[in-house]
Design a protein that fits this description.
Number of strands: 0
Radius of gyration: 24 Å
Largest sheet: none
CATH class of the domain at 92-272: Mainly Alpha
Order of helices and strands: HHHHHHHHHHHHHH
Shape: globular
CATH architecture of the domain at 92-272: Orthogonal Bundle
CATH topology of the domain at 92-272: MetI-like fold
CATH superfamily of the domain at 92-272: MetI-like
Strand content: under 5%
Helix content: over 70%
Length: 319
């Protein structure tokens, strides 16, 4: 078990480093100069004092070779220091600390709704004995996956805000203001979970151990939930871990549609201004949330199926 945990921790560190490195390279390859954009705010770029540009480049380290910049930024990031925003001058950690709780609240509510809706749909579709109902329920996940997120958001706003007046259309207005944005993110996410879980459940229900449980007199509901669902949940758990990154990325669209403050709006503004320190901080936090979620899921796997650790130890011994 210890070797399994150490391997997963090493993979998590590797993902964090790769995400930070790729984002740094992409941002440095983009055309334009963030220092010039900051110094020329409200005036023509040709009127900016060259001495001021040079001072700003030195202050933010943009006058150094790219590899030196990368080493400096990476060393500071390891210590939790992402420098200051080029656009606002505020420390990046303060900017993220103000926006992060709203985005975590949104993504947490969305993943909870997605698991409940997607898991419930998959269980109901595979449990029902009515063929027409099963086919109807199994046709819903592909529809949910294919619908654009922004369209779902606009439809929910039109229906539940403008017509029924149940929820606010914009802003961070407490729990009521969270319902529609979270549901917007949860619809395509829950559809993907339902697709994977339903397929796994249908496969598990045809296995020999399920037939054995039925032969011993176990009821349909007990067989479905206790025997089939436990084994079928492993692929769905993997999908949930992967979808966390998709939810964080989707928050950019959802927070824009619903005019919510959060990492999405901070990221959009930072990319537009080529605010490299802020974007690097957002990427690092997003990657940290992603790898932490996947690490937790990896550690849950052996609890559901102890054979995973045995197989991992056996491969390590053979290597």
């Amino acid at each position: 078990m210890r070797r399994y945990v150490i391997k997963r921790l090493a993979q998590a560190v590797g993902v964090l480093w790769a995400a930070y490195t790729v984002s740094f390279l992409v941002l440095n390859w983009l055309p334009g100069d963030p220092v010039t954009a900051m110094a020329s705010a409200g005036m023509d770029s040709g009127d900016v004092d060259p001495a001021r540009l040079a001072a700003l480049r030195h202050e933010y380290g943009f006058d150094k070779p790219v590899l030196v910049q990368y080493a400096d930024y990476l060393g500071q990031a390891v210590l939790g220091d992402f420098g200051g925003s080029v656009a606002t001058g505020r420390p990046v950690t303060s900017t993220l600390a103000d926006a992060l709780p709203q985005t975590l609240q949104l993504t947490g509510a969305a993943i909870l709704l997605a698991v409940l809706l997607g898991g419930g749909l998959a269980v109901l579709a595979t449990y029902t004995a009515r063929r027409w109902l099963r086919q109807l329920l199994l046709s819903l996940p592909p529809l949910g996956v294919s619908v654009p997120t922004f369209w779902v958001g606009l439809l929910l706003v039109e229906m539940f805000s403008f017509r029924l007046h149940w929820f606010p259309a914009f802003g961070n207005d407490g729990l009521k203001g969270l319902v529609l944005p979270a549901l917007t993110l949860a619809v395509p996410t829950g559809a993907q979970i339902a697709q994977v879980l339903a397929k796994s459940l249908l496969t598990a229900l045809d296995q020999a151990y399920v037939e054995t449980a039925r032969a011993k007199g176990a009821g349909r509901w007990r067989v479905h939930l206790r025997h089939a669902l436990r084994n079928a949940s492993l692929p769905a758990l993997t999908v949930v871990g992967l979808l966390v990154g998709q939810l964080i990325a989707g928050s950019v669209v959802v927070e824009t549609v619903f005019s919510r403050d959060g990492l999405g709006r901070v990221t959009a503004a930072a990319v537009t201004a080529q605010d490299i320190p802020v974007v690097q901080g957002v990427v690092a936090f997003g990657a940290l949330i992603f790898v932490t979620t996947n690490l937790v899921i990896d550690l849950i796997y052996p609890l559901l199926d102890p054979r995973i650790v045995v197989a991992s130890d056996r491969r390590a011994a053979l290597a």
